[in-house]
Specification:
Oligomer: single chain
Order of helices and strands: HHHHHHHHHHHHEEEEHEEEEH
Distance between the termini: 72 Å
Largest sheet: 8 strands, mixed
CATH class of the largest domain: Mainly Alpha
Number of helices: 14
CATH topology of the largest domain: Endonuclease III, domain 1
Helix content: 40-55%
Radius of gyration: 24 Å
Length: 352
């Protein structure tokens, strides 16, 4: 066991990443934010988002005190927005229950919204050098290959075996360096499609390499056909502004600003009347598909060019926003919303 960790640490000393933004002037807060952003997102994508986020929300209190809209605005484009909502909720709990200081106890950390066992272990080990194993996607790949543990890591039995191995291999000393090294190794030499086994520091004991079955591990998630859904998104336009509404806090694009939708084009007139829109010209924009983890959504956008100012609609106006394309508001936007705003900026439009 010690030979494995010794080789990993030696490799880290020579090749590990030590100058990522969240590794400089490291705090529990900076590590926590980075770990949440890095869930299902590559380092190269995260870095600019992390830098902007930390420039605006410099500490836990500033994050906790900020409006949710602004937090989601700084997350726009990263996806998986529940991460941002949970980060904001957890910051408020830390502000209110722990005087704004990130808690030291594992049980306290793992109880926070959006923090699971591996994330809690990562923050406490990397920032506070506590002895905790981690098991993110990169570590799962390294360990499943090293011991040739078959099956999809999302299955409880497989995950349990990987946790047991992770705990057995985690050294008592230099835990922060070891955990960082395991994540780095999985992100570089032990990559999913092109592992560089010759350069791996633990290749001599790797069962997958010794049997030339690297690509069999970890096992793939069982594939299933994603259902296809359809929607029509309405983009009422008046004097350079587009009507948005704030979606419910939970569910699809929870808490983000997006467009009103109908299931069929025949329902556009009724929705327009409900929104207080009378005279308008309809322009079909290019349809596109947006894929979620559990279904494909086919979107038909309709631009409603208003010929008269909007009336007071029957919907809750406090949940509405006329979004000025020339002076964008600091609010969180759903991915199709951002995409369609980009399309509008390139589309010749009539003057209202």
């Amino acid at each position: 066991m010690t030979e494995f960790s010794d080789n990993i640490l030696q490799w880290f000393d020579d090749h590990g990443r030590k100058d990522l933004p969240w590794q400089l002037n490291k705090t529990a807060y900076s590590v926590w934010v980075s770990e949440i952003m890095l869930q299902q997102t590559q380092v190269s994508t995260v870095i600019p988002y992390y830098q902007r986020f930390m420039q605006r929300f410099t500490d836990i209190k500033s994050l906790a005190d900020a409006p949710e809209d602004e937090v989601l605005h700084h997350w726009t484009g990263l996806g998986y927005y529940a991460r941002a909502r949970n980060l904001h909720k957890a910051a408020q709990i830390i502000r209110d229950q722990y005087q704004g200081r990130f808690p030291d106890e594992f049980e306290q950390v793992v109880a926070l919204p959006g923090i699971g066992r591996s994330t809690a272990g990562a923050v406490l080990s990397l920032a506070k050098n506590q002895h905790h194993a981690i098991l993110d996607g990169n570590v799962k790949r390294v360990l499943s290959r090293y011991r040739a543990i078959g099956g999809w890591p999302g299955e409880k039995a497989v995950e349990k075996r990987l946790w047991q191995l992770a705990q057995a291999l985690t050294p008592q000393q230099r835990v922060a360096d070891y955990n960082q090294a395991m994540m780095d190794l999985g992100a570089s030499l032990c990559s999913r499609s092109k592992p560089d086994c010759e350069a791996c520091p633990v290749n001599a004991g790797c069962k997958a390499r010794l049997s030339d079955r690297q690509h069999e591990f970890p096992g793939k998630k069982p594939r299933k056909t994603l259902p296809e859904k359809h929607t029509v998104m309405l983009l009422p336009s008046w004097q350079g502004q587009i009507l948005l509404y704030k979606r419910p806090p939970s569910g699809l694009w929870g808490g983000l600003w997006g467009f009103y939708e109908v299931e069929h084009p025949q329902q556009v007139a009724a929705m327009a009347e409900k929104l207080g829109l009378s005279l308008f010209e309809t322009l079909e924009l290019e349809p596109f598909r947006h894929t979620f983890s559990h279904f494909h959504l086919h979107i038909q956008p309709l631009l409603l060019e208003l010929k008269a100012p909007p009336n007071a609609g029957a919907v809750h106006e406090d949940q509405q926003l006329w979004y000025d394309l020339s002076k964008p508001a600091n609010v969180g936007l759903a991915a199709p919303t951002s995409k369609l705003f980009s399309t509008l900026s390139k589309t010749p439009r009539q003057q209202n």
